[in-house]
Write a structure and sequence with these properties.
By secondary structure, the chain is an all-alpha fold. It has helices at about 20-45, 50-60, 65-95, 100-125, 130-150, 150-160. It has one domain (about 20-160). It has six helices and no strands. About 20% of the residues are buried.
Length: about 170
């Protein structure tokens, strides 16, 4: 069997093990969160036609011009938030898979923010379909964060960040 020898003066790089099963599962869940966010954005864009009537029902005193402006703001805002959401899910998946310990903290903070947004959304009446998607997204985030903080994940993140200065 052939084994390559390190050249004179070169130290072979240590082989870093891949992420443990809990991190792999968290990453898969994060990709699932990105997919759910993308599907939610697509459904929102497909149903733009009903948005005008919903807005008019909620704000019957708006003029047609005001209603059109509000509809435009809601559509652009929804697209912006949807794209940012998808990007954050993918970014967190990539960074956590790479063992970046800051990414685990950021993912946990984002989950906390999502919890607050979910609670605010549930407090509003009449958003059943949106709330269902929000709850599904929240559950995906919950399980991802739980997997990120398991013991084997902590060992992985500690090893990936290297020795700490004391």
């Amino acid at each position: 069997m052939y084994q390559p020898h390190a050249s004179a003066g070169q130290v072979p790089e240590p082989v870093r093990p891949g992420p443990p099963a809990s991190v792999v599962m968290a990453v898969r869940l994060m990709y699932a969160g990105a997919v759910v966010s993308a599907l939610s954005l697509i459904v929102g864009l497909v149903t733009i036609g009903s948005l005008r009537s919903s807005l008019h029902k909620a704000q019957p005193s708006l003029t047609p011009a005001q209603l059109h402006s509000l509809q435009s703001v809601v559509v652009v805002g929804s697209i912006f938030i949807g794209v940012i959401s998808i990007g954050l899910w993918v970014w967190m998946a990539l960074m956590n898979r790479a063992g970046k310990s800051w990414a685990r903290i950021v993912a946990s903070v984002l989950f906390g923010l999502d919890t607050l947004f979910l609670l605010a959304g549930v407090a509003r009446a009449g958003a059943a379909a949106g709330t269902l998607v929000s709850v599904l997204t929240w559950l995906i985030g919950l399980f991802a964060v739980v997997f990120l903080w398991r013991r084997d994940a902590t060992e992985y993140f500690n090893a990936a960040s290297g020795p700490r200065a004391r």
